[in-house]
């Protein structure tokens, strides 16, 4: 019994630390978060208390108002924390990959399936909507990356629809905070077994890192090839 209590206390302590850490991180980007939460909580509790005094049940309405105030504060805090997190991630390399990793069940994501020297990158997600190529970087340069990747998809999985999205704030681009919503709105056209088969075929194709060509030109001084050397094809 004591062990269960200790485990429960540890879990509660961990959650409390997580909330405090999230609040501190949010406050760096959203200076008014404390005032907003206080205003929301006090307003809701005040309204319920006023109604309670009018109808002669201030205690009952006060308790109900307190619960609703805490619930509303939690919802507002979660949304503003999410907005602050996206604001800090915006424009950072790999931000889209982080969103894709947390898109939810039913999706398999592979970061950096294509990249150029300017660090423009294309990530791939596979789900019931088909294949989604998500690019981040210069909108003009990523068009070339997306076109090449789509041609590759058509050669390997020609029967699977391929969508492409470019993350950014310009015209025709998807803001980072709306990426998950945009992907979930795509029509579902594949069954579970079809998604599995598509993933298997893409996995057999390999990814950017396993197919990365050796740089052309003379080898830099002091650089050595891995043991065994490149495999002959």
UniProtKB/TrEMBL annotation:
InterPro entries: DUF4191. Keywords: Membrane, Transmembrane, Transmembrane helix. The chain crosses the membrane at residues 33-53, 59-78. Residues 210-233 are annotated as: Disordered. Residues 219-233 have a biased composition (Low complexity). The keyword Oxidoreductase does not apply. This is DUF4191 domain-containing protein.
